[in-house]
Amino acid sequence: MDAPLNVDAAELAKFSELAHRWWDPDSEFRPLHQINPLRLGWIESVAGPLRGRAVLDVGCGGGILAEAMARQGAQVLGIDMADKPLKVAQLHALEHGVAGVRYRLVSAEQLAAEQPGQYDVVTCMEMLEHVPDPASVVAACATLVKPGGWVFFSTLNRNPKSFLFAIVGAEYVLRLLPRGTHEYGKFIRPSELAAFCRRAGLEVRATRGLTYNPLTRRYALTDDTSVNYLLATVKEAP
């Protein structure tokens, strides 16, 4: 019997309902549009130029990061378990002539069984806090990347400050995100994510924090990992 899929039906429904607004920079997805240049720039500053490389974006949603990486010259596959956002991503790429990106409705674990060691770079951004078993996704990402390849994660820290900023502040006070976007209990401490990575054969090479200034309404990459943070890892050689 096949193993159950590592998905949360309520999470899929939540993002599917908003799928038609994914590429509206003034919609609920405005934060993703604003942080995308920062995370793309950091990925290339760590892993090097993406041009000509095979890249996988796990939990790609409507394709904001996947399409941006394709525009940098990468050959990108974006995967997700929500069908409506994938259709939005496919349509947007078609309408804007982005040829280097394609999309599939498949889980990271399923793809890992099909295509082990096929990707130079794997990204998994703002996704781990939305699945029942984040360690399983980390392990799948490690399987999918080539030895010596890079895997990037971003997620939310779990502490009182992150509850105050990421849920109370972002969802209820500043209304940067729809209410109910995140569940505090699913947030992941950097030490926990690093442990998942080590068990999967990934070595943590760099960590960055992502902060938001409500006065300037700008995001920035900093050394403060207390709320949002990114991890860069490398797959160890056999």
From TrEMBL:
GO terms for molecular function: 2-polyprenyl-6-hydroxyphenol methylase activity; 3-demethylubiquinol 3-O-methyltransferase activity; polyprenyldihydroxybenzoate methyltransferase activity. It comes from the Bacteria. GO terms for biological process: methylation. S-adenosyl-L-methionine binds at R39, G59, D80, M125. This is Ubiquinone biosynthesis O-methyltransferase. It catalyses: a 3-(all-trans-polyprenyl)benzene-1,2-diol + S-adenosyl-L-methionine = a 2-methoxy-6-(all-trans-polyprenyl)phenol + S-adenosyl-L-homocysteine + H(+); a 3-demethylubiquinol + S-adenosyl-L-methionine = a ubiquinol + S-adenosyl-L-homocysteine + H(+). It comes from Tepidimonas taiwanensis. The keyword Transcription does not apply. Its EC number is 2.1.1.222, 2.1.1.64. Pfam families: Methyltransf_23. Pathway: Cofactor biosynthesis; ubiquinone biosynthesis. Belongs to the methyltransferase superfamily. UbiG/COQ3 family. The lineage of its organism: Bacteria, Pseudomonadati, Pseudomonadota, Betaproteobacteria, Burkholderiales. Keywords: Methyltransferase, S-adenosyl-L-methionine, Transferase, Ubiquinone, Ubiquinone biosynthesis. Coiled coil: none annotated. O-methyltransferase that catalyzes the 2 O-methylation steps in the ubiquinone biosynthetic pathway.
